[in-house]
Amino acid sequence: PYFAYPRVLGHELSGEVVLTGDDVSPELIGQPVYVIPYLHCGECRACRQGRTNCCQRLEVVGVHRDGGMAEWLNVPASHLVPVPGLSAEALALVECQAIGAHAVRRGQVERDELVVVVGAGPIGIGVLQVARSRGARVAMVDTNRDRLALCRDALGADAVWHAVEDDVSAEIEALNDGALADVVFDATGNPEAMNRGFDFAGHGGRYVLVSVVKADISFSDPDFHRKELTLLGSRNATREDFETVTRLMASGDILTEPLITHRGRLEELPTLMPQWCAPASGVIKAMVTLDAATAEVES
């Protein structure tokens, strides 16, 4: 709902620094970096409270201003972060996993809690990996069996359930000694799924809405109060979340290679993008690369 065309896409990106401003250390030049795409004002109440992810005047690279699907990108040096030892592809995936890390922090996930993640896309996978790093048990819910299999076989999910064919509430209770989930995350972007997620949360539980939709969502107020649920929104991520992700990548607690299902070059996108957008493509993350040698730097 915050997007406006025309726009050069690309808010999940890494690159190599080729030029710096006069007041920026030239030591950055030549370093591979990831980009924190959330450009906050630093002056509003949210920023002063350290909640830069929900800045009142937030601009996101690739959403409110042109993004990384281009030869060159000009961003503040404060939003470039070098991480030695991580590949360019891993660095390009930091942002989407940081959204999951922020959601887990919002949900205050603790060891041995049962976490149910509805939506096994890149953001839901981020929640899965970060929650597991905290010692939580994590179950994934989706309608895509291939994604559920990936979460179970490659990413360590404790259980996976089909959103339509399985009785999810009953499965949760069977896994959690008769209780519903301690924490539920929605990462579907589907209003019906978001409404249904309230049913999966147990007494005293938390429900974190990571996805955002234009439609209204609704829930049973008597059930909400009977369970004394805590409802939380989660938007974007802060630098702390980015740092959490790179630390977990370095330790092997966040895997990136299983997420990359497709690859292509920037000049191939007019052909590849329609193919990748088709549901049958099986895309989780498509990695777009550019040979820097083909471009010229203008000083």
Describe the protein's architecture and organization:
The chain is of the alpha/beta class and 299 residues long. It contains ten helices and 13 strands. The chain has two domains: 118 residues, Quinone Oxidoreductase, Chain A, domain 1; 136 residues, NAD(P)-binding Rossmann-like Domain (Rossmann fold), CATH 3.40.50. Strands 8-7-6-9-10-11 form a six-stranded parallel β-sheet, sandwiched between helices. A three-stranded antiparallel β-sheet has the order 1-2-5. Strand 6, helix 4 and strand 7 form a beta-alpha-beta unit. The radius of gyration is 20 Å and the shape is globular. The chain starts with 13 loop residues before the first strand and ends in a 10-residue tail after the last strand.
Oligomeric status: single chain
Number of strands: 13
H/I helix tally: 10
SS-based class: alpha/beta
Low-confidence stretches: none
CATH superfamily grouping of the largest domain: NAD(P)-binding Rossmann-like Domain
Query: What CATH architecture label of the largest domain applies?
Result: 3-Layer(aba) Sandwich
Sheet having the most strands? 6 strands, parallel
Strand content: 15-25%
Overall mean pLDDT: 95
Any idea what the radius of gyration is?
A: 20 Å
- Domain tally: 2
- Strand adjacency order, main sheet: 8-7-6-9-10-11
Shape: globular
Distance between the termini: 36 Å
Order of helices and strands: EEEHEEHHEHEHEHEHEHEHEHE
Q: Helical residue percent? A: 25-40%
- The CATH topology of the largest domain is what? Rossmann fold
